[in-house]
Amino acid sequence: PLPIAVLVSGGGSNLQSIIDRVEQGALDVDIRLVVSNKGDAYGLERAKKHNIPHKVLLHTDYATREAFDADMVKAINDAGVDSSGAVVLAGFMRIITPVFLSAFENRVINIHPALLPSFPGAHGQPDAADYGVKISGCTVHFVDEKTDHGPIIIQAAVPALAGETGDELGPRILKLEHRVFPQALQWLAEDRLELDGRFVRLKPAGKRLAEQP
Ligand code: GAR
């Protein structure tokens, strides 16, 4: 299985969707570490419950983003995840720097609760709802130096209803997140994602010998 670290800041329902798929045998990753930048993130409890190593690194303890990122890299490396593994941002609400990205080149993926490039930032669901879009959704993408910008792996859409708030739209988007994020991760684990500039191509699955004549 692909060794991964999962970074969270909050509830960790996306982390849970990954844990569940692993436990069902449907996702070939080994969650070596969960890191939270908040001491009270419920995602930490989820890790604890499933005996997954977890760690709190408070960004407020650091003078610079780079110093914080350097310590995160160290913690993740110490847990056995290097540039041949992957780092999954699952509701991690901090901007990461080149210090972090250079340690895991093209191996960091993020989920965003809107159809990028629309509504980047920390409030994707209410921003889309308040704008009055008719469709929103979520985006899983490789992380690059710009916020919510890297090459898109998969997107999924839901209708947005006139007059609804981000709190009403958000849960429908979250449900989709729990489907597409584990899928994107499984493709990464199967080494099926081919990067070509901004484009991500999904390589065909390996031969299924059972289906051969
Ligand atoms: C998710 O909706 C995720 O897409 C979003 O935070 C939520 C975390 O929920 N991420 C961002 O907004 C990143 N800009 P969770 O902690 O229950 O997985």
TrEMBL record:
Residues marked Raises pKa of active site His (site): 148
Catalytic reaction equation(s): N(1)-(5-phospho-beta-D-ribosyl)glycinamide + (6R)-10-formyltetrahydrofolate = N(2)-formyl-N(1)-(5-phospho-beta-D-ribosyl)glycinamide + (6S)-5,6,7,8-tetrahydrofolate + H(+)
Entry-linked Pfam families: Formyl_trans_N
Keywords for the protein's UniProt record, in alphabetical order: Purine biosynthesis, Transferase
Pathway in which this enzyme or protein is active: Purine metabolism; IMP biosynthesis via de novo pathway; N(2)-formyl-N(1)-(5-phospho-D-ribosyl)glycinamide from N(1)-(5-phospho-D-ribosyl)glycinamide (10-formyl THF route): step 1/1
Positions with a binding annotation for (6R)-10-formyltetrahydrofolate: 65, 93-96, 110
UniProt protein name: Phosphoribosylglycinamide formyltransferase
Species the sequence originates in: Pseudodesulfovibrio portus
